Amino acid sequence: MIIEERIYTLHPGKVPVYMKYYQDEGLAIQQAILGNLIAWHYTDFGPQNQIIHMWSYDSYADRDERRGKLAESPEWKAFLPKILPLIIRQENKSLIPAPWSPTAHP
Fold this sequence. Notes:
By secondary structure, this protein is an alpha+beta fold. The protein has helices at 15-34, 60-72, 74-83, and strands at residues 2-10, 36-42, 50-57, 87-95. Strands 2-3-1-4 form a 4-stranded antiparallel sheet.
């Protein structure tokens, strides 16, 4: 299993706007295609105006297939123009659970 961590830095004050759009539309689109949402957070202190979410996949091939389906989804394509103007920066990381991590055993 791999976990993909995605961190988005938003324009100041836009976290509530992003979260509203995502809760109302984006989450259902992504969950139907990407599957296993591990976590979805936003920052309280430290780096500001960030949202962080993590998705687990069986393998890199599984991740690539699911992300490809999401990119081709008409619903996702229609949703993106709502959130893209809110984003300043995006970071993606591939995380591999250590054997003792709770996420190592789904």
